[in-house]
Amino acid sequence: MKMMKTNLMLLAIAITSIFFTGCKKEMNISDAGNLVPKTVDQDPSLSSISVNGTQLHSETFGNPDSAMVIFLHGGPGSDYRNGLSVKQLANNGYYVVFYDQRGTGLSKRHDRNSYAIQLYLDDLAAVIAHYRTSPTQKVFLFGHSWGAMVAAGYINTYPNRINGAIFAEAGGFTKKLLDEYGEASRKLKLFSEATNDILYYDQFLTGKENEHAMLDYKMALITPFAYAKGNSEGVEGPSPIWRYGAEVLQGFMKIAEDEGFDFTTNLSRYNTKVLFLYGENNKSYGLPFAQKEAGYFPNAQISKVNNTGHEMIYFKWNNVYPIVLPYLNSLK
Amino acid sequence: MKNIKLLVAIAILLCSTATDVFAQTVNWASLKKKQRHILNINTGLDYGVTYGVGYGYQLKTKLPIIINGEYSFPSGNNVVDDFKTKIGGSIRFATVNNFQFSAKIHGVFRRYENTLARLVNFGSDMSVTAGYYKKKWYVASEFGFDKAVVTHFKHSQVYKNNFPGVQDGWYEPSTGGNFYYGIQSGFSFEQHDVYLKAGRMVTQDFSTTPLFPFYLQLGYNLRIGK
């Protein structure tokens, strides 16, 4: 019994030591480049631009004097890596611009409470200004999911600045529509493997606010939920991404909950024809949702992309391209 | 890093060979000295829907001490990719009339895997419980801390396709920790306990919570012995 008590004491000391002292540094999640890639401010070899008080990961393809197509990726928090097929438009006489939105992908990280919708619109304006080579150069926006929401927000705020826009399954132009889409696309099945995979890891990893590497990694780990078997958005599988911006997502979720948003108030003033795309296999979006969003514009074309879902640009670019190119050419 | 592994090894070794404290909920007032073996089954919400089993052994000590081991796993198609084991025990260290106070400490070994990564973690779980205990029933409150001390990461080709430079291996300092607090209550009859406990979790910085910040457990104990 005395031996047992001694062992109990030793055990308590050992575990208490583990609790409070930790151990010497070997690999640390917070160190750049261990579990998530370095960002442009940490790796000077990455292509970047400095605009509007931040540093954005950015690339361009095509002749800088050609009509500009700016690709706006999804999220909030994702990046443009799975949209790179759009660069094919450079072969058709367009200047294609990609950038990872502030705090996402390989762009510089910022604190959660620094994000704002107007700031994102200002970033977009700054990117356009950075790459535009003449005042007469036409500018088209090509937004996917959240990126399509940003495109709508920009046109709603500045109806005279853009020469055309493509909306690939915008998640909702208003808070009400966003909630509607969210409820339809993010159903949790409590007993499923996919659901438990996004809940169970919280006992392994916790991160404080603005502990970016940890939070971005956690975000990355739950992405298989989006393409789990039977997902309602018709996502075929994993698509490439550099790095999630977890605090961007948290920041904009808080903004949506606290302040709401409405990107539709001026869309009726935008008379240029716009293009809406929806994936045949996305049960949460479909023609009815596309019609709701397109209804805010006076002149909209709605096109179905066959045999794909929400990630149509990555998985079925060959079906998207024949729809997008004639639209752009009609406005060029 | 070697130091932490040594400490963890010592902890696990001691847990598995000697005294410890108990994690499953127990009615201290109805537990008899000669009831040496306690079998447990449980289900609930513990970072997802989980199912668990446990075994406890009551030592021949002046103060009631129970050493135990537990195994639990979350629901899903694959029931072997994620699990949690605990080895440790509990001690009731004070009584004041029908009020009883106990503490528990466990070494934790757990595993998580999805299509992107496999995480293996050594951790600790410590808590204190204070409650009002009668032979037939009890109600108590608990407060504890579950710390993920050191974690090994191994990534799949799917993750490496996105980030070829990812570094597999042991990561420290602590990769996480959650406080939890809640209430527990149960009924006891003959050799049986049926209990329910529920509470809330908050991360160690007190400003954020797990995605599902609650826990719930419905359990059953069979006390073997007279």
Percent of residues of chain A in helical segments?
25-40%
CATH top level class name of the domain at 64-186 and 233-331 in chain A: Alpha Beta
Oligomeric form: heterodimer
Can you count the beta strands of chain B? 11
Q: In the CATH scheme, what's the topology name of chain B? A: Lipocalin
Rg of chain B, Å, rounded:
18 Å
What's the CATH topology label of the domain at 64-186 and 233-331 in chain A?
Answer: Rossmann fold
Structural class of chain B: mainly beta
Order of helices and strands of chain B, N to C?
HEEEEEEEHEEEE
Spatial order of strands in the largest sheet of chain A: 1-2-4-3-5-6-7-8
* Secondary structure tally: strands of chain A: 8
Distance between the termini of chain B: 47 Å
How many structural domains can be distinguished in the coordinates of chain B? 1
Q: What percentage of the residues of chain B does DSSP assign to strands (E)? A: over 45%
* Mean residue pLDDT of chain B: 87
How would you describe this protein?
The complex is a heterodimer of chains A (about 325) and B (about 230). By secondary structure, chain A is an alpha/beta fold. Chain A has a domain at about 65-185 and about 235-330: Alpha/Beta hydrolase fold, catalytic domain (Rossmann fold), CATH 3.40.50.1820. Chain A is about 35% helix and about 15% strand. Chain A is built from 10 helices and 8 strands. Chain A has helices at about 1-20, 115-130, 145-155, 175-185, 195-200, 210-220, 245-260, 285-295, 310-315, 315-330, and strands at about 50, 55-60, 65-70, 95-100, 140-145, 165-170, 275-280, 300-305. In chain A, strands 1-2-4-3-5-6-7-8 form an 8-stranded mixed sheet, with helices on both faces. In chain A, a hairpin with a 2-residue loop joins β1 and β2 (about 55-60). Chain A is globular and about 55 Å long. With about 230 residues, chain B is mainly beta. Chain B has a single domain (about 1-225), classed as Lipocalin (Beta Barrel). Chain B is about 10% helix and about 60% strand. Chain B has helices at about 1-15, 155-160; strands at about 35-45, 50-60, 65-75, 85-95, 100-115, 115-135, 135-155, 170, 175-190, 190-205, 215-225. In chain B, strands 1-2-3-4-5-6-7-9-10-11 form a 10-stranded antiparallel barrel. Residues about 1-25 of chain B have low confidence and may be disordered.
